[in-house]
Structures are given as structure tokens and as C-alpha cells.
């Protein structure tokens, strides 16, 4: 029976029954007790600061209020980060996630893309000129690449930057309606500068797309400058806090020095100097793709915290007539929907940790002049970005559904998480398009394999003998699970390559063969990412040092991740009889066993993510489990309840009850 004060008794019982120490697992997730302490310190700074608590809740704000309140919060965050000397990205990330949870910043693009692009693509002189202004917010900028007509195919962008050697200026133009910049975050009303991606023309030649710094608003009045038409694109599915914008450029002249020239250059006379690799200009997208993996993992982790705590508190339906109603977490169907997502949130966290480290290592190499790992970085970041945002967005929605009716209310906190995470499937490269980039890399690797060339370590599984059958026994060993994923990916890569080959042999051009095989190529890319994430999870639990009870519990969760992925995608695993029917039965049985094994630790697993209530902002996911009182308080706080009788009653309902409808004819 739930009490109305203190911790809900069901939740308290769950915590008593877990087999491991939650603190030990938090230490493992966040890489040590010192880091956990630091994260808590940063969360506390934000959650205990009265500044962030003075605003009405996000769900009760109008669009304009969402923008204005979020802007105030992020400007304050910016000021606090400086005062507190928070310079590390991880520190800023933790402070911000607690200060404005899932509220997309009106100066976010400035921080996440504008400044990093200057840092990575600007010359020393440009960095000296712009970075201090950007740091002090005198310049507020965004990354303006996407146009109304083109987002994916960036070589098809229509904005032009034509070099005029007489004045040593570039002239920027949006020649058509489809060439107008459309979607860039913070562009509509906040920014006074943009990094504009445009087709460079010099000496009568098109040299492809390049980045240009363009001032769009007056620094004193904030009015748009001559030749600039700019504004907000209007309400969206979410992102109400963000003024995604449109921009039209008409004969806007900027000095030659405003082209980002660290790698490509236009000399004074108009001579074009090529970069060492044309794709180096895509570096800012790679950075954000890498960051999205952790961002998506965090969204799913928080959704699991909410949904699993609520499932432990919520009781529904007497199991035997007249008996006690069961905790909904005890229904096997609820476990089947939630526990694999819990496992996925851990898998994605570890993938995010890997991605961040790999990004830092590889970009350091690139900046040192060694570009060898660029294709790998592109393939891994594109693949993990797409895989994580797909899995986590779908997972958040399932968590919401698992909360029944209350999941549909903003009181659950789940809709806010969902609308914040789901655009990650689209921005920074639409996910299907990103998977096709991965497939392109896989086909290259397959070609190397055919030619007997060496493969990078993470691709060596492709040389597996595809006639081999699974080693799976009743024990369901982790290595057999990894082997299954790698086998499936290797076969799908081979099948996609064979499909293209067959089309070429039938007389199709390579491009036609590619287009005729994109579904199979996408299957192969997804299977590759699934294998990559599974292997990473397995290696993390097997090779890392951690408390033995935590390791045992985490091993079950990891196994669940792998077994569930096989059972849910069975067709791909049995197509070539890799598993026989006996092994399939073993896996199905193991899946049910794992659900039961994880059940006593489910709450402990989500507690270990260590998200304070102020971050979750959920009546259902509260640490104390007092969900019903919280729902009641939430309902009472709705602005709709400020008056007992609304004006609309007198204006519309009362007259209608009296058969009077004249007010409508006035319209
Ligand atoms: C517990 C740990 C805590 C850690 C904390 C970490 C700290 C994190 C810090 C901050 C966290 C904040 C979280 C933020 C997350 C939310 C942010 C929200 C902001 C979102 C804002 C959104 C912005 C945007 O959307 S910007 C616009 C993005 N647009 C795109 O992505 C366009 C997609 N299209 C493309 O990329 C390209 O057009 C293409 C790749 C599809 C095709 O390009 P194209 O030039 O046409 O290519 P093609 O000629 O066909 O050639 C293909 C060859 O090029 C190679 N290639 C392509 N791209 C790259 C690349 N980037 N690098 C290297 N190589 C590349 C490709 O492999 C082909 O090579 P090949 O050899 O020819 O095969
Ligand atoms: C919330 C949000 C914030 C954004 N912020 C920014 C920003 O700050 N700066 C910026 O420049 N942009 C931004 N964008 C734009 C974003 O990067 C693009 O929307 C994205 O890259 C997808 O491009 P698109 O809209 O042209 O989609 P499209 O390419 O038109 O996609 C439509 C469909 O066509 C398919 N498709 C397209 N090309 C191919 C292909 N080659 N093969 C197979 N299928 C294909 C896609 O899979 C998709 O299903 C933002 C978008 C959103 C939603």
C-alpha cells in the first residue's frame, strides 16, 4: 500500500531487494566516484539556484514565453559557466542538462556549431578576430547550411558567393525561393551573424560549397542589414524554445577575409586553393553527430527512469479475484517492453562514451595533418548518430505508452523528452541518408576484403566464414551472441554487394545498381551498427574493472540487450540457418529468464543514472514515488483552473444552452 509521505512503500521495497550497490554502478557509468561527485555538484548548482525556479513550468508557457524564458536561462547559464570557470564540455553538459532540461537553447547553435566551426575551420587571424566577440556574445551566430530546397544533398545548395577581385569581396545571393536558408537554429530572431554555406564562384568557376561569415543584423539596433530578409519559421512539432529561421540574401557584400580559410583559400587575385580533403569542411556536422549519441542515450535513460519507477508504484488489476492488484512492473508484457529499453539506454551510453573519445582522438590526428582516419570517423559517427537517435526516440515513445493514460500528460515529463530527442533522426543528416553513408563505407571495405587488403580492426569480422553455424548453447555465452550479430552483418553486407553486382551484370550502371539496392544496403548498415554497439557493450562489461555484483547484474542486462535484438530481428539471423530451431527456442527461453532475472534490479538500474527529480520534471518518475499527490498538485496548478468558471462559459456555453447562437453570425 502506498503511503502519502516519505518514499512509496513499493519503491522502497524495490530498493531493498536489489542485488548490487547503486552507487557502485553510478561510479561505473560516469567513470569513477570523483566524476560522480563532480556531476552531482554541477547538478546541484543548477537545481538549487532560485533563478531557474522562478519561471512557470514549460508546459504552461506560450511559444513566445518558451523562447523568452529559455533565452534568459541560457544567457544565465552562459554567465554562470564563466563565473564558475566551467570550460570542459562535459562540465557544461551536466550543468546545462540540470538547468534547462530538454529545452533547446536559443543560443545553442552559437555554442555547439558556430564557435566550434570558427575554431576548426578558421585561420589563426580569423580565430583571433571572431572568437573573443563570440565568447562575449557581441557576435551571436548560427550554422546556416540547410536551404528550403536542399538539406541532405549539400552539394546541391543554391546560395552563391561570387568573388569580386576588384573590391576583394564576396557577393552573397539567394537566387531562388528554394535557395533561402531554412531551419538553422537561433537564426530567426537571436543571431546577428551566420556561417553561411554557399557555392563559391571565382574566376568564373564553381569551386563547390564553402563557409562564409555573414553579418545579418546591426550590432546596436539588431535590425536586419541591407540585403537581408530574416525571420522565424513558425511553430514546429517541438523546439518551441528555438527560433529556427529563414534567411534570404540579396547582393550582400562581405570582405574576402570572411571566407573560412584554414583549409581552402581564395587569394586576392581570385585564385582558388583546394583543401587537403574536400570533406574537411563537413567537420562541424561530424562533431554534432558524435554528440547526438550521448544526447539520445540520456533521453532514453531518463524516460526509463520515469517509466520504470512509475511501473513499480502503479498497481492495476487484481491477479486473482479479490486479491491485491499487481504492480504493473510484474506483468511480463510490461517487462518485455521496458527492460530491453533499459538495456538499450546502457548500450547507448557506452556507445556515446566511446564516440566522444574516438571523436577527440581522431580530430586531434586530423588537426595534426593526418587525415587517414577521416572516413572511419565519418562512417562511425554517421552510423551511431542514426542508430542511437532511432532506437532512443522509439524507446522514449514506448516508455510513454507504458505509462498508460498518465504518460500522455505533460505531467509525465515524457512528451518533452520525446520532442527534444526525435529531431535527432532528421537533423545533422537524415537517418536513412546517414545509413547509406555507412553502407558506402561498408562496400568499400567489402571491396578491400575481396582484394585481400587489410581491414581496420572493427571491420575484420567481415572475413568470417559465412558457412559456419552458431556456437549457441543453453549457456547463451556472450561471445556467441556477438558472433551472431557479426555473422548477420557480414552476410547482409555480402548480400547487398551481390545485389549490386547482379544489377551491374544485368547491364545497369553502378549508380543504378546502387539505387536498386539501397534497402539491402540500409539493412546491412543497420546490422553493422547493431553489431558494433552490442560488441562494445559486451567488451565494456567483460573487460572493465568494476564491483563484482555490479558486473554480474550488468552482464544480465547486456545479455538481454543482445538476446532481445536477435529475437526481435529473427529473420535476419536465421535466413542462412545460422541458428537452428533448437537454438531459437533456447534464445526465446533465455529472454524470458533474463526478464525475471532483471526484475529485482530494475529500479536500481534506473536509480544508478542518478537524475535528480528537478532534471526529470516528472510526476511519475519522482524518486519518492508519490505520483498521485504530484499528479493532483500538477492538475491544480494548471492555468485553466485559476478561475472556477471561465469567461468562455458566459460567452459561449450559456448562450448555447439558451439556444442563442447570434455571436457566431457576427464573425
Ligand atoms: C557521459 C558523457 C557526457 C559527454 C558529454 C559530451 C559533451 C557533449 C557536448 C555537447 C552536447 C550537446 C548535445 C547536442 C546535441 C543536440 C544539438 C542540437 C543541434 C542540432 C542542430 C542541427 C544542425 C544541422 O542539422 S546542420 C545541417 C546538417 N546537415 C547535414 O547533415 C546534411 C547531410 N548531408 C551530408 O552530410 C552530405 O550531403 C552527404 C554526406 C550525404 C553527401 O555528401 P556529398 O558531398 O554529396 O558526398 P559525395 O560527393 O557523395 O561523396 C561521398 C564521399 O564523401 C565522404 N564524406 C561525406 N561526408 C564526410 C565527412 N563528414 N567526413 C569524411 N568523409 C565524408 C563519404 O564517405 C564518401 O567518401 P567516398 O570515399 O567517396 O566513398
Ligand atoms: C529541429 C531541426 C533543427 C535544425 N537545425 C539546423 C541548423 O541549425 N542548421 C542547418 O543548416 N540545418 C538545420 N536543420 C535542417 C536539417 O539538417 C535537415 O532537415 C536535414 O539534414 C534533412 O534534410 P532535408 O530536410 O532536406 O530532408 P530531405 O533530404 O528532403 O529528406 C526527405 C526524405 O527523403 C529521403 N532522402 C533524401 N535524400 C535521399 C537519398 N540520397 N537517398 C535516400 N533517401 C533520401 C530522406 O531519407 C527522407 O526520408 C534542422 C532541422 C530540424 C528538424
TrEMBL record:
It is found in: Peroxisome. The active site is at 428 (proton acceptor). Its cofactor is FAD. Keywords: ATP-binding, FAD, Fatty acid metabolism, Flavoprotein, Lipid metabolism, Nucleotide-binding, Oxidoreductase, Peroxisome. It holds the Pfam family ACOX_C_alpha1. One of its GO terms (molecular function) is fatty acid binding. Residues 479-656 form the Acyl-CoA oxidase C-terminal domain. FAD binds at residues 146, 185. This is Acyl-coenzyme A oxidase. Coiled coil: none annotated. GO terms for cellular component: peroxisome. PANTHER family: ELECTRON TRANSPORT OXIDOREDUCTASE, PEROXISOMAL ACYL-COENZYME A OXIDASE 1. It comes from the Eukaryota. Pathway: Lipid metabolism; peroxisomal fatty acid beta-oxidation. Belongs to the acyl-CoA oxidase family. Residues 282-443 form the Acyl-CoA oxidase C-alpha1 domain. Residues 21-140 form the Acyl-coenzyme A oxidase N-terminal domain. It comes from Magallana gigas. GO terms for biological process: fatty acid beta-oxidation using acyl-CoA oxidase; lipid homeostasis.
Amino acid at each position: 500500500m502506498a503511503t502519502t509521505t516519505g518514499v512509496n512503500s513499493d519503491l522502497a521495497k524495490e530498493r531493498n531487494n536489489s542485488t548490487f550497490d547503486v552507487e557502485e554502478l553510478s561510479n561505473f557509468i560516469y567513470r569513477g566516484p570523483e566524476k560522480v561527485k563532480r556531476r552531482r555538484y554541477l547538478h546541484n548548482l543548477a537545481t538549487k539556484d532560485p533563478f531557474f525556479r522562478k519561471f512557470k513550468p514549460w508546459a504552461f508557457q506560450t511559444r513566445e514565453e518558451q523562447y523568452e524564458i529559455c533565452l534568459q536561462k541560457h544567457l544565465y547559464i552562459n554567465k554562470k559557466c564563466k563565473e564558475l570557470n566551467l570550460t570542459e564540455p562535459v562540465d557544461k553538459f551536466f550543468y546545462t542538462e540540470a538547468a534547462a532540461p530538454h529545452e533547446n537553447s536559443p543560443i545553442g547553435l552559437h555554442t555547439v556549431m558556430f564557435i566550434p566551426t570558427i575554431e576548426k575551420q578558421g585561420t589563426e587571424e580569423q580565430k583571433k578576430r571572431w572568437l573573443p566577440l563570440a565568447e562575449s556574445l557581441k557576435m551571436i551566430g548560427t550554422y546556416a547550411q540547410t536551404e528550403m530546397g536542399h538539406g541532405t544533398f549539400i552539394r546541391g545548395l543554391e546560395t552563391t558567393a561570387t568573388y569580386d577581385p576588384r573590391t576583394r569581396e564576396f557577393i552573397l545571393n539567394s537566387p531562388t525561393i528554394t535557395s533561402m536558408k531554412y531551419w538553422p537554429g537561433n537564426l530567426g530572431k537571436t543571431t546577428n551573424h551566420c556561417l553561411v554555406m554557399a557555392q563559391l564562384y571565382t574566376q568564373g568557376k564553381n569551386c563547390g560549397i564553402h563557409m562564409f561569415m555573414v553579418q545579418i543584423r546591426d550590432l546596436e539596433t539588431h535590425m536586419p542589414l541591407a540585403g537581408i530578409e530574416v525571420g522565424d519559421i513558425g511553430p514546429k512539432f517541438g523546439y518551441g524554445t528555438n527560433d529556427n529561421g529563414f534567411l534570404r540574401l540579396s547582393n550582400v557584400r562581405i570582405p574576402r577575409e570572411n571566407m573560412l580559410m584554414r583549409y581552402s583559400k581564395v587569394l586576392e587575385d581570385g585564385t582558388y586553393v583546394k583543401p587537403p580533403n574536400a570533406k574537411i569542411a563537413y567537420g562541424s556536422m561530424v562533431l554534432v553527430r558524435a554528440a547526438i549519441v550521448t544526447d539520445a542515450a540520456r533521453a532514453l535513460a531518463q524516460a526509463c527512469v520515469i517509466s520504470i519507477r512509475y511501473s513499480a508504484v502503479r498497481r492495476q488489476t487484481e491477479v486473482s479475484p479479490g486479491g491485491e492488484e499487481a504492480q504493473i512492473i510484474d506483468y511480463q508484457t510490461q517487462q518485455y517492453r521496458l527492460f530491453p529499453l533499459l538495456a538499450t539506454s546502457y548500450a547507448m551510453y557506452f556507445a556515446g562514451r566511446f564516440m566522444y573519445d574516438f571523436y577527440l582522438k581522431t580530430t586531434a590526428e586530423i588537426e595534426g595533418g593526418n587525415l587517414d582516419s577521416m572516413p572511419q570517423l565519418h562512417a562511425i559517427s554517421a552510423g551511431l548518430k542514426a542508430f542511437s537517435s532511432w532506437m532512443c526516440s522509439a524507446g522514449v515513445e514506448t516508455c510513454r505508452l507504458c505509462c498508460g493514460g498518465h504518460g500522455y500528460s505533460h505531467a509525465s515529463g515524457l512528451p518533452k523528452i520525446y520532442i527534444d530527442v526525435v529531431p535527432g533522426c532528421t537533423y545533422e543528416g537524415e537517418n536513412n541518408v546517414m545509413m547509406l553513408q555507412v553502407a558506402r563505407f561498408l562496400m568499400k571495405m567489402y571491396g578491400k576484403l575481396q582484394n585481400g587488403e587489410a581491414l581496420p580492426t572493427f571491420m575484420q569480422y567481415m572475413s568470417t566464414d559465412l558457412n559456419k553455424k552458431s556456437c549457441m548453447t543453453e549457456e547463451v555465452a556472450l561471445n556467441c551472441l556477438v558472433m551472431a550479430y557479426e555473422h548477420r552483418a557480414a552476410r547482409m553486407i555480402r548480400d547487398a554487394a551481390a545485389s549490386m553486382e547482379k544489377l551491374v551484370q544485368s547491364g545497369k550502371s553502378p549508380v543504378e545498381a546502387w539505387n536498386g539496392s539501397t534497402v539491402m544496403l540500409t539493412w546491412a548498415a543497420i546490422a553493422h551498427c547493431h553489431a558494433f554497439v552490442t560488441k562494445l557493450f559486451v567488451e565494456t562489461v567483460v573487460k572493465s574493472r568494476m564491483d563484482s555484483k555490479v558486473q554480474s547484474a550488468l552482464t544480465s542486462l547486456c545479455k538481454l540487450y543482445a538476446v532481445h535484438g536477435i529475437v526481435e530481428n529473427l529473420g535476419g539471423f536465421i535466413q542462412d540457418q545460422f541458428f537452428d530451431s533448437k537454438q531459437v527456442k533456447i534464445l526465446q527461453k533465455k529472454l524470458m529468464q533474463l526478464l525475471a532475472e532483471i526484475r529485482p534490479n530494475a529500479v536500481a538500474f534506473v536509480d544508478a543514472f542518478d537524475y535528480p527529480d528537478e532534471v526529470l520534471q516528472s510526476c511519475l518518475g519522482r524518486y519518492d514515488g508519490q505520483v498521485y499527490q504530484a499528479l493532483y498538485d500538477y492538475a491544480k496548478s494548471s492555468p485553466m483552473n485559476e478561475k472556477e468558471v471561465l469567461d468562455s462559459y458566459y460567452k459561449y456555453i450559456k448562450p448555447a444552452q439558451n439556444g442563442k447562437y447570434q455571436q457566431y453570425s457576427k464573425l
